[in-house]
Amino acid sequence: MRFAINHITAPNLSLEDFFSAARRLGLTEVEIRNDIPDVVNTMDPADVKAAAEKAGVEIVSINALYPFNVWSGDLPAKALALADYAAASGAKALVMCPLNDGTKVLFDDLVAALSAMKPILQERGLTGLVEPLGFPISSLRTKAEALRAIDAAGGGDVYRLVHDTFHHHLAGETELFPSRTGLVHISGVVDPAVAVDEMLDAHRVLVDGADRLENVAQIKALIAAGFDGVFSFEPFAEEVHALDDPETAVRDSITYVSAQL
């Protein structure tokens, strides 16, 4: 099983310290971000690439192009700039998230956005990792709809899905698409009081025995179905970000998940 770590797991670490922590955890694959922490808008991509090479890690993705499915306004320019940055930093892929504010986005507009983004990715040798968000207000909740749009855009060779265990649970989606999945994000929810349709990023912690999202069952099912890619930790909860020793916490979660398989 290939674990990776998203920088949001330990956002208080500098990029270099984050890469070093990943290596001490026995990991060689990482994800960087353009929000928390904002590496993209604060570091030269050449410096990011050099730091990754020095540490011996591969940047599997940059999170994230948002809202990728609304191809208007400044989004095309943002997409171009982020793709250029990804290529220059040595990242392999861009995570692409849909509009998440209660506004509906037409299926044809989703297809048009994927069609417009396709040559930008192709020209830079990047993969587009489409991540449906399971929130009730999301404009793209399921992987099945994402795949339908990818195929309508003729993007099967450019795009892969992100299977996020949190969003998979929230969307109530049961079908897995292992052969078309490029990345899995894992995080747990342990708060017993929050209803599923009220779960937010702020509830997302590292996976342990109190997890309500059935992470272990999802991981087992994905592996059994043939997925052999990366499982990347992506907890958003402030209580995780504030940990004095996030490295030990991630190691404990890796130990827990591995022991269940």
TrEMBL record:
SUPFAM superfamilies: Xylose isomerase-like. It comes from the Bacteria. The lineage of its organism: Bacteria, Pseudomonadati, Pseudomonadota, Alphaproteobacteria, Hyphomicrobiales. It holds the Pfam family AP_endonuc_2. Residues 19-256 form the Xylose isomerase-like TIM barrel domain. This is TIM barrel protein.
